[in-house]
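Figure 6 in text form: structure in, sequence out.
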């Protein structure tokens, strides 16, 4: 994920602040994801009204809130095998 300079703008933003204020000031900024991009405002709107104490709080919300295009291959994990009682994705051999 690339914040395309939004991180600098968020660090200079005055805190504490609300998600509404962040969206008004920086909501049209684009976050580059593994498979596409997404508006910062769309990411933060998923959480509703919040108050952020500092820029790190906003970065945490962004990392938690990006859509599935931001996490690479969906449902893939080489660490968590599917249990016998669970249906999971079909194994893929590379």
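Output sequence:
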């Amino acid at each position: 994920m690339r914040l395309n300079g939004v991180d600098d703008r968020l660090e200079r933003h005055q805190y504490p602040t609300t998600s509404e204020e962040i969206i008004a000031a920086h909501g049209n900024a684009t976050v580059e994801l593994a498979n596409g991009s997404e508006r910062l405002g769309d990411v933060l709107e998923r959480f509703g009204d919040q108050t952020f104490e500092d820029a790190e709080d906003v970065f945490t919300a962004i990392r938690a809130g990006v859509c599935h295009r931001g996490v690479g291959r969906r449902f893939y994990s080489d660490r968590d095998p599917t249990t016998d009682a669970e249906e999971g994705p079909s194994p893929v051999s590379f």
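Caption detail: Strands lie at 17-18, 30-33, 36-39, 51-52.
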